[in-house]
Each structure stands twice: as C-alpha cells, then as structure tokens.
C-alpha cells in the first residue's frame, strides 16, 4: 500500500505538469508547478512513521541501508508507462524527507529546447573539456542529454557516461553509448573514470565533478584528447574556473591551472526562468575557446574573462545578462524575472513595473 501511495503522489504530479514532488514529515505533500510549490489536493499531513513507510516502499534494500547510515541518498525510480524520477532522500529537523524530480522519458532535441546553434558547434569540436554549470534544478541534465543525443544522431563515437543517479537512458544510434550508475555499476566516479580511460572512449560524461580526484581525472581524460563533459554547481565562467582550481591544495594549483588552460573549450552556465505564459525556459552564459583564455587561466586573471565573453559575441559567446535581455525583449520573460536573475541589476531596473520597490 505504501508503494501505491508514493506512485499516486508521483502520478498526480506528472498529470498536473509538475516538475518536483516534495515530501516532509509532519507536512502536507507538495508539488512544484511553474516554479511554485502547491499542496496536493485532498492530502493531509504525513506523519513520521507513515513517511518512513512510503520512502522505504520504493527504495531497494541496499540503498535503504545507505540512507539509514548516511542520512542522504540519490537514486532513480521509474513508474512504467508514466515516467522516471530522480530521487533525493534526506533527514531534516522534522524527520525524513524527499524530493523527487520528473525525468522526461523522451530526450528532447536541441531544437525542442531552443538551445543556441552554438551548442552544435561545441559538440562537434572533437576534444577538450566542456562544462555545463548552474544551480540545482537549472536543467543541466536535460541540456547535456540533448547534446549527447545530437552526437549520437550525427557521429559515430564511443560514449561513456558516469552518473549518480542515471537519469536519461540513451539508445544506441550512430554512436555506442555505455551508461554507468555510481553504486549500481561502479563504486565511485573516480573508479569509473579510471576504467573509462582504458576503455577506448571518444567521449566521457561525468555527471558531477565533486572532488579533487574526480576533477583531476576528468582533466587527464581531456588532456589525452578525449571530449569530456562535466557539471558543477556554479553560476558563471569565472566562478567555475575558480571552483576547479580552488578544489586543490595550493601546491597543486599551478599544475591544475596549466591542465585547465590547455583543455578547457567551453563553459555553459544555465539558469531556468519563469516565462510569461507560466512555463519555464533556460537562459545561458557561453564562454568559448579564445586564444587569450589559456593565458588568463594560467595567470589567474579571471576577472578579465568577462571581457573575453563580451568581445566574442560574434563567435557565439554571451553573458547571462545579455541572454536575459534577449528573452525579455522577445516577450518570453517579464521585466521582474529578468531583474531577479540578472547579475547587474541596475541595467534591468527600467523594465520593472511602476512602484515595484514600494510594494516590496
């Protein structure tokens, strides 16, 4: 019965067009729809004992042991005929809790996602490090899936993905795709990356570059001439580069700067914005390779990267604020949404409704 109850929550969310299910002990379950959290109709508060039963009902025994021991757990769950879901279990001051995100069964194309044409050039360059960054829930996995799918449809490559959890399942088309989930198919990102280096891949996707060893191995793969896709929870190119270098002890940083300078090809930073029709769309900052970029990385002149992006507009580069302005002028997002997501907010104040600050 508990599993049926969880499936009911998830099916309700899916049918209502929601993106996330939020479960918290001693609270009414909610779904996120068009960016807002709303209670599930007809549901009451879920007590701690009931919450434990609901969560355990869909969790494999081995993973439940991990959750009980570590208080955190990520895995994927599927309801046949409905959808796959990315599951995160946690413990809070109120007790057990979970957030479950819908993973579309269909991998959307770049065209369907309205991604810039520049993205096609990025995946066709053959080698180097390509990073897709942004906060949790910004759609990084969806964007990466579209990029891998484009390669799969147009190139004959050997692609290895290492994910935690495995979200989008890619059928082999022109390419051969080997997908591995951490804890199910390998014990860690590091072990899987070491294995990938011996498996004759053309492309490696690292679901998340979490620690120095994973980052170092990803850089080594890129230095070997592979194309390496990775993600970080950063909001722009300078912060991404700084995060990578800062993950290492000071004595190792010169070597990491040199490796990053020689392998970095692209940083795509992504945010999700509420649209004027109640949906959501992505806004991007794009840093592409430029002859000046390696020197700036080696010398630590990260503040100058913004100038590289602004000077590279004709080549397909853009800052996040440039893209937010485009979305506003196209009528896809409101002035308030553009202002809230902008880095330089003063440039967007004129787009706010009259009396906006008085109301706040």
From TrEMBL:
One of its GO terms (molecular function) is ATP binding. NCBIfam families: pilT_fam. Belongs to the GSP E family. Residues 197-211 form the Bacterial type II secretion system protein E domain. This is Pilus retraction protein. PANTHER family: TWITCHING MOTILITY PROTEIN PILT, TYPE IV PILUS RETRACTATION ATPASE PILT. It comes from Lentisphaera araneosa HTCC2155. SUPFAM superfamilies: P-loop containing nucleoside triphosphate hydrolases.
